[in-house]
Write a structure and sequence with these properties.
The chain is of the alpha/beta class. Helices cover 23% and strands 29% of the residues. It folds into 5 domains: 2-79 and 659-676, no CATH class; 83-222 and 614-650, von Willebrand factor, type A domain (Rossmann fold); 226-323 and 608-612, Sandwich (Immunoglobulin-like); 326-524, Rossmann fold (3-Layer(aba) Sandwich); 534-603.
Length: 679
C-alpha cells in the first residue's frame, strides 16, 4: 500500500495522547466514612475491574479513531493492474467518435458534447509533461502530431460532427501506428464512443500489448430512430414528362412501432408526391411513389421524413437525366431484319432508324444509344474504322453475323473491332443453358428462375475462337459450352456479339421471351447506368457519362445552394473516365458536374446510413471483448468528478473514504459507550 500524502503519517504520534491520559488519571479521590470495611473491600474490587475494562475499550476506540483520521489524510491507495503502462512520460492518444450518431441526446445535451467534456477531464488527469494526440473520423492532417494539454483542449473544443463514418478497427489501426513511433513506456489509447454495433466489429479490433487501451462508452438517452435507408427507380428509362416510379426503404431502429409516417418527395424544388407508411418496431417498410418529371433534362430531387433527435438521415437525395427518345440505328446492306423492326419501330420511347451501309452518315453515330450492325457482305475499312471510334468513345454496338456471308468476311469485321474470330459453323442442335442474370441487360427482368423458363433451342451457330479479351462477359451460354451472346468492353464502350443470325433456320432466340429484354436493354443502357445516388465518404469510382471537352478548364463539381465547388479527380483507363470524390464533400445534396457553363452530369450524395442503426454494444459485451487482453479496460467516467477521473486513470485505488467512515464509527462507539456504561 502506498500513500498520496505520506507526510501526514507523522500524525500517528497523536496516538500517545489518549495513552498518556489513560496512564495518568487526573481525577481526585473522595474520602468515604463507613462503619464496617468488610463490605467495602468486596464492592471496591468489583467496581475496579469494570472500570479498567471500560477504560481499555475507550482507549482502544480513541487510538483507532486517531489512526483512521491520520490514514484518511494520508490517502492510502493500492495500484491496479497494468502498472507497467505508467513508466515514463505519458503519450496519450484520444479517439473521439464525432460521427452523426453522436448527435443523439444525452444528459449533457448530445453525446458529442459529453465526449468532449470527458476528453478534457482525461487530459486534466495527466501531469504537464504528458503529450496528447487527437484522432477523429475526419482524419485531419493538423491532428497528426502530439500537443500539450492546453493545445489539445483547444482542438477538442473546436470538434464538430463529421459526415464520415469509420469503423473502429480501422481507426485503432491508424492510431496504434502513431503510438508505435513513441518511445515512452507510458502509452495510452482512449476510445470515446457510443460503440455502435454497425461500426464497431468487436472481434476484429486490433491489439498492441505495449499500449494501454481504454474504452470509454457513452450511453444515449434514446435508441429510437427512423431513417430512409435507400431508394431506386423501377425502370432506368427516363422520358420527359412521363410517369416514373421511385421505390424507397424506410427503417425503424427503435422499439416502438410508427404509424402513418408522412414521406414527401420533392423534384427540382417542388413537392411532387406524398405517401404515408406504417413501420413495425425494429422493422422496415417499402414505399412506392409515382411522379412525373418536367421538361428539364437534368432532374434533381429528394425524399424527406421528420424524426428527432437524429436528423441527418431524414432526407435522401437522388438525380437522373431525362431524354426525349433513345436513338437506335440499324445498319444493313440488303434487307432490314424483321425481328428488330417489330421490336423497335413502333415504340415511342425508341428513336429507331435504319440505314444502308453504303449510305451511312457518320455524323449520326455519336447520338446513338445503340448501333446494330447486320451485314450480309463485306464492310469497308473506313466504315469499320468509324464504328470502332464510336465504340471507343462510349458507344454501344450489337454485331449480328450474316447467314450468307462466309467466315472470312465476318472475321474481317471481327478483327477490325477486336472481336474473336468465327472458327466454323456448328450444325449440332443444342439449347441455351444459362443467362448471366447479374448483367444489366437481364437484371430484374425475370420474376421466375431461369430453370422455370423455356430457353430457346439453337439449331446452328458459329463457334468462336478462344479469346483472352480482358473485358469479356459471356451473357448467354449453350449446353455444349459455347457462347450465344457475349459482351466485350472496347475503350469506353461495349460491343455485343451474337453467334447466330436472327433467322429461324439458326435458332429460336428471336422468338423467345429472353430476346426482348436482351436486345431492348442494350438500347437503354448505352453504358453502365448511373446510380441515382452515391454514398459520401466512399471512394468508389463514379462513371463519367459525358466526356469533358479538351480545354484548359477542368470539370468542376458544385452546388450553388451550398456555395460549394471543388475539382474532383478524374481518371482515364482504357478510354473510360471515372470520377473520384474522396473526402471533399461535407454535406449531402445534389451536385452538378460542369465544365465552364456546360453540364456534364448530375450527381447526388447521401450520408452513410451505418450511423443510423442505433444499436449499441452493452458494457457487459464490451467487457467480454476485453477478456484475454490484460491491456484493455472499460472505463465509465460519466458524471464523475475530475478527481475521480484522475484516480481511475492513475490506477490508484484510494482508500481514504473507508478510513473516514471508520473514524466516525470509532468516535460514535466511544460516545455511546460513555453514555450507556455507568459505573
Amino acid at each position: 500500500m502506498s500513500f498520496v500524502h505520506p507526510a501526514f503519517l507523522w500524525g500517528l504520534l497523536a496516538v500517545a495522547i489518549p495513552v498518556i491520559i489513560h496512564l495518568f488519571q487526573f481525577r481526585r479521590y473522595r474520602t468515604l466514612y463507613f462503619s464496617d470495611t468488610r463490605f467495602i473491600e468486596e464492592l471496591q474490587t468489583e467496581q475496579k475491574r469494570q472500570s479498567q475494562l471500560k477504560k481499555l475499550i475507550i482507549l482502544s476506540l480513541r487510538i483507532l479513531a486517531i489512526i483512521a483520521i491520520v490514514m484518511a489524510f494520508a490517502q492510502p491507495y493500492r495500484h491496479r493492474p497494468n502498472d507497467r503502462f505508467r513508466e515514463g512520460t505519458a503519450s496519450v492518444l484520444l479517439y473521439i467518435d464525432n460521427s452523426f450518431s453522436m448527435e443523439n441526446s444525452s444528459d449533457q445535451g448530445s453525446l458529442l458534447n459529453e465526449a468532449k467534456n470527458q476528453a478534457a477531464a482525461i487530459v486534466d488527469a495527466f501531469d504537464e509533461s504528458a503529450s496528447f494526440m487527437l484522432l477523429t473520423n475526419d482524419l485531419e492532417g493538423r491532428h497528426a502530431h502530439f500537443f500539450n494539454a492546453t493545445e489539445i483542449k483547444e482542438e477538442i473544443a473546436r470538434l464538430q460532427p463529421s459526415p464520415n463514418s469509420r469503423t473502429m478497427d480501422r481507426m485503432m489501426e491508424y492510431g496504434l501506428g502513431f503510438l508505435e513511433q513513441e518511445k515512452s513506456g507510458n502509452r495510452q489509447f482512449f476510445l470515446i464512443s457510443d460503440f455502435q454495433q454497425s461500426t464497431v466489429p468487436l472481434s476484429l479490433l486490433p491489439d498492441d500489448s505495449s499500449v494501454q487501451i481504454r474504452m470509454v462508452p457513452l450511453k444515449p438517452n434514446s435508441q429510437d430512430n427512423i431513417y430512409i435507408d435507400s431508394c431506386w427507380f423501377e425502370s432506368p428509362l427516363f422520358l420527359r414528362q412521363q410517369e416514373c416510379k421511385l421505390h424507397l426503404q424506410v427503417r425503424n431502429s427503435g422499439r416502438n412501432p410508427v404509424e402513418q409516417l408522412p414521406v414527401k418527395l420533392y423534384l427540382n424544388g417542388q413537392q411532387k408526391a406524398i405517401a404515408n407508411t406504417d413501420i413495425a418496431a425494429e422493422g422496415k417498410a417499402l414505399v412506392e411513389m409515382s411522379f412525373t418529371p418536367d421538361a428539364s433534362e437534368w432532374q434533381q430531387g429528394y425524399v424527406e421524413i421528420t424524426d428527432h433527435p437524429v436528423t441527418f438521415d431524414d432526407r435522401y437525395y437522388f438525380s437522373f437525366r431525362t431524354r426525349d427518345r433513345h436513338p437506335v440505328l440499324c445498319l444493313y446492306d440488303e434487307n432490314e431484319n424483321r425481328f428488330l423492326h417489330a421490336l423497335f419501330a413502333e415504340d415511342s420511347a425508341i428513336g429507331y432508324q435504319t440505314m444502308r451501309l453504303q449510305q451511312m452518315d457518320y455524323s449520326r453515330l455519336p447520338q446513338q444509344n445503340l448501333v446494330i450492325l447486320n451485314p450480309t457482305n463485306e464492310v469497308g475499312s473506313g466504315c469499320l474504322q468509324e464504328l470502332r471510334r464510336y465504340v471507343e468513345n462510349g458507344g454501344c454496338m450489337l454485331v449480328i453475323p450474316s447467314p450468307k456471308a462466309d467466315a472470312n468476311a465476318s472475321n474481317a469485321i471481327n478483327s477490325a473491332l477486336e472481336l474473336p474470330a468465327f472458327t466454323l459453323l456448328d450444325t449440332h442442335r443444342t439449347r441455351v443453358s444459362e443467362l448471366l442474370m447479374e448483367h444489366r441487360i437481364f437484371a430484374r427482368t425475370m420474376e421466375k428462375p431461369t430453370e422455370q423458363v423455356l430457353l430457346p433451342a439453337v439449331f446452328r451457330h458459329y463457334r468462336l475462337a478462344h479469346s483472352l479479351h480482358q473485358g469479356k462477359e459471356v451473357l448467354i451460354s449453350l449446353e455444349n459450352g459455347d457462347e450465344l451472346l457475349s459482351a466485350y468492353s472496347i475503350g469506353r464502350g461495349c460491343i455485343y456479339l451474337l453467334s447466330v443470325p436472327l433467322e429461324d433456320a439458326f435458332s429460336e432466340f428471336q422468338r423467345n421471351a429472353i430476346f426482348v429484354p436482351a436486345i431492348y436493354n442494350m438500347a437503354l443502357f448505352k453504358n453502365n447506368p448511373q446510380a441515382p445516388c452515391y454514398r459520401m465518404g466512399g471512394n468508389d469510382p463514379i462513371p463519367m457519362e459525358s466526356e469533358a471537352a479538351q480545354t484548359d478548364k477542368l470539370p468542376e463539381l458544385r452546388n450553388d445552394a451550398l456555395q460549394f465547388s471543388c475539382i474532383p479527380e478524374i481518371r482515364n483507363s482504357y478510354n473510360n473516365s471515372e470520377i473520384f470524390i474522396h473526402d471533399q464533400l461535407r454535406e449531402a445534396g445534389n451536385y452538378l458536374l460542369c465544365q465552364q457553363e456546360d453540364t456534364l452530369q448530375t450527381l447526388s450524395f447521401n450520408y452513410d446510413r451505418r450511423e443510423s442503426d442505433l444499436h449499441y454494444w452493452s458494457t457487459k459485451e464490451l467487457k467480454k471483448a476485453c477478456n484475454g487482453y490484460p491491456n484493455r479496460e472499460i472505463m465509465a467516467i460519466s458524471n464523475l468528478s475530475s478527481a475521480a477521473v484522475a484516480e481511475k486513470i492513475s490506477g490508484k485505488n484510494r482508500q481514504n473514504g473507508l478510513f473516514i467512515w471508520l473514524a466516525l464509527a470509532f468516535l460514535l462507539a466511544e460516545s455511546i459507550l460513555l453514555r450507556l456504561w455507568k459505573e
